[in-house]
Amino acid sequence: MTMLSRPFTVLSAVMARCLALLDARPWLLPLLFGLLSLLLGQDDNWDLRNYHLYNPFALLNGKVNLDLAPGQWQSYFNPTLDLVYYGLLRALPAPLAGFAMGALHGLNALLVLAIARRLLAHLPQAGAQRLPLLLALAGCMGCAFFSQLGNSMGDNLTALCVLSALALALRHWDGLARADGRGLALALLAGLAMGAGAGLKLTNATYALALCAALLMLPGGWWRAWSRAFVFGVGVLSGIALTAGHWFWRMWLEFGNPLYPQFNDIFRSPLAAPIGIGDTHWLPQGWTEKLLWPVIFALHPERVTEIRMRLLLWPLLYIGFIVLAVAALRAWRRPRAVGQAALSPQARFVLAFFVLSYLSWQALFSIYRYLVPLELLAPLVLWLLAHRLLAPSTARRVAGGAVLLAVLLALPTPHWGRARWSSEAFRVTVPEMAHPERSLVLTTQAPVGWYTAGFPASLAFVSISGGFPGSPLYEQRVAAMMAERGGPFYVLLTSNQQDPAEQPRAERRRQGDEADSAARRDAAVILDRHGLRLDPASDCRVYPAYIGRNYQPYQFCAVVHK
């Protein structure tokens, strides 16, 4: 038994030393997450293939009004956020860029740690060794955050803006409560941070609304409350203007819709159908689901996410908030039980922000990965609830056990797509083209936007099928572009051929040929609707392309008028 227990003793000692090091030098946390990003591998998610690489490439190479939606309707998302990932890949070898992206995401751990240290200072157990660090690390082990660590999806990066605004409010609590000149300046600064995140990714607007409402609950009277909230709102709008104003203005000038093609039922851009684009199938259906949503999506995570996740903390938080509400309603009838800790004003503020953010998310999106800021705070919030509702010794056991169980069940965390590292993140072999400025490449599939970054910038790419809600004028624009350029014209299709570096297998080659033939048949149907066909005098050729070491070849076929 002694021999069996020795490895566990050594492991415990090593973990204790590591935690002590991180607690004494928290600046190591981002480096830790940078290393974890390296271990997870090169990003290869669907959105990256569709538009996260294409959008910054198009912005920097003057292709916004040259192409037509090769990344579907997401081609017109604000590319400012994607410039971070794209810039790292252009400046550094792919593994170093992945490390840097993971380290940037790891800054969230520092913010959660700062928030936890401030809130736990008001609890009887505030002196518990390394508790804030453990809760911060537990938050970073959540499925949404960890599955996106080091990747390009943007939720981890913009969470920095959300948590910065919250941490700023807590750090300067007394100034905000007074709402004097300095306090209003702090509210403006917090709004700028939050607005920057909302401008970079509009889904963060729910957190801006929640924090603005939570500021109304601070003590000091209604005039101070409204002054704080108003100045914070001005900061939010200013932050949005800083990070997204340039793009909104460009979309207005180009298409007559600052959010093109979204909300086109309002702005009526002639190139897009007059509809409001929104992914509503994730939303809860009916009042029963709305009331029980945390329990439902924990049991059926496919209701809120495309990949399998274990979301144990959310039903526990849901129960905790219900019990807290019941306790608040009954508080006037009997005193608080002996040993229970009262919530500090700062803790009540964070809990209000948490609940309001969740309700806004549920009403507007209900897509789990948009909950990254709340997921990072979830272990801390559960700890606060437990210590408000239970005696300290019981609260430590219940909250600690629940958080530990949730983290263990969440591992191993699924991912959105990874590849083994190579020195170059993306490699696309491009066919020789004598005059790319005269040519045009049609796309009929998704996601293919990432291929465009390997081609000459003067070559135009146009989607004639897929997720863009085009209007009749869009079809006329396609025909006009072909007439102006003159040709030759091509269609780009994905390929399922085997990587030449692998051992050749006849069955695998047969499957690839069948899949490629099916893709060409589907493309032929779409081309026919536009008066085009695959050139019978020219064979489609397959060209190699890689994301990391993932082989992603494509077919390149000549197209002619019928």
From TrEMBL:
Signal peptide: none annotated. The chain crosses the membrane at residues 96-116, 128-147, 153-171, 183-200, 206-223, 230-249, 311-329, 341-361. Residues 496-519 are annotated as: Disordered. Residues 502-519 have a biased composition (Basic and acidic residues). Coiled coil: none annotated. Keywords: Membrane, Transmembrane, Transmembrane helix. The keyword Transmembrane applies. This is DUF2029 domain-containing protein.
